Amino acid sequence: MTDKMQVLRHSEHTLKTALISKNPALVSQYEKLDAGEQRLMNEAFQPRNNLFEPITVHSQSDWITSHPEAPQDFEQFFSDRYRKAPCPKKHIIYIQSIDRVSLCSPGCPGTHQSQKSACLCLPSAGIKGSLGNTRVISEEYIKWLKGYCEAFFYGLKRHILAFLKKNKPEDAFCIVGITMIDLYPRDSWNFVFGQASLSSVGIFSFARYGKDFYTSKYEGSLKTPQPTSSSDYSIFDNYYIPEFTSVLLLRSCKTLTHEIGHILGLRHCQWLACLMQGSNHLEESDRRPLNVCPICLRKLQSAIGFNIVERYKALVKWIDDESCDESGATPKSSSEHVHLPKPVEAFKDWREWIIRCIAVLEK
């Protein structure tokens, strides 16, 4: 393939099979969805559909070209015996902000007794619970993310918590760490925006989402390649803190929900333009929509359980309600009080798209 853009179009039959399946039990399950939900999901394979676009590959550096993967249809997702799903005993998503993190080598068995980090886990040493020196602003930002996740993963509403703990709680379905430190899982890898593991732990970085990252103003690179000892994290001191803009919030919401989607068992989408597409670089990540395609939407609904129209209305409410409780910090003293209006300008197109989906659902 040349560097010219290529549109990946699947046939109506292929998309319909990927969404509904040929398995009679799964077909029957699909037919039990209400008429509005079926009508919206069926947009996936309608020839003149204007809600769900095909994937456009811009160059060979894009994820789908440089990382060949087998596609995952709904039947493969549903029958995956290794997939983890929320249950009454493990149904809470925890979001933890950290300023120090390391990723272990592949094959790491889990949490280390030495209190170093676990594979893609968060080190218990040095956790501060903020994204940087602006603690109150950071807390408010985390609450925006928490509110967005409550709407996006609507079936787990009221079960997504920002927290600061050393160990994984027993009721945790997953823990997602957020950091301003640039992430490199291995020396041989390019950076990653985020990464998740089958152990229900994920992490993602805001580092490359700030406008100053690629300029001389960025100070988030490490002083030395490795800490001098397992307890020395001084190389992470004074790392980069970007300005909390609408674009930063959108990018953060996008990556956070993408990674939690992986923890729920959704693989990279290769069917339609979708949040669950992989991305190799920021430009590609920005092209990826905030919404999941109908095939991934059915996977998400199956894993969590939600009414689609209620989920979309919750997302609209999150965008519209700039002063809701989710966005208000709780400072320790009045001198620390900071009120930041939630910057949602970058979400306006997303909101209009959701309204169109609600119209199809309620037709």
Helix/strand order, N-terminal first: EHHHEHHEHEEEEHHHHH
Terminus-to-terminus distance: 42 Å
Spatial sequence of strands, sheet with the most strands: 4-3-5-7-6
- As a percent range, the share of strand residues is 5-15%
Q: Quick one: overall form?
A: globular
- The gyration radius over C-alpha positions equals 20 Å
Number of helices: 11
Q: What portion of residues is helical?
A: 25-40%
- Given as residue ranges, the uncertain stretches (5+ residues, pLDDT < 50) are 100-134, 184-192, 216-225, 323-335
Q: Can you summarize the main beta sheet?
A: 5 strands, mixed
Summarize model confidence as the mean pLDDT. 76
Supply the helix-strand structural class: alpha/beta
Count every beta strand, where a strand is a DSSP E run of 2 or more residues: 7
Protein name: Archaemetzincin-2
Family: Belongs to the peptidase M54 family.
Pfam family, one: Peptidase_M54
Organism: Apodemus speciosus (Large Japanese field mouse)
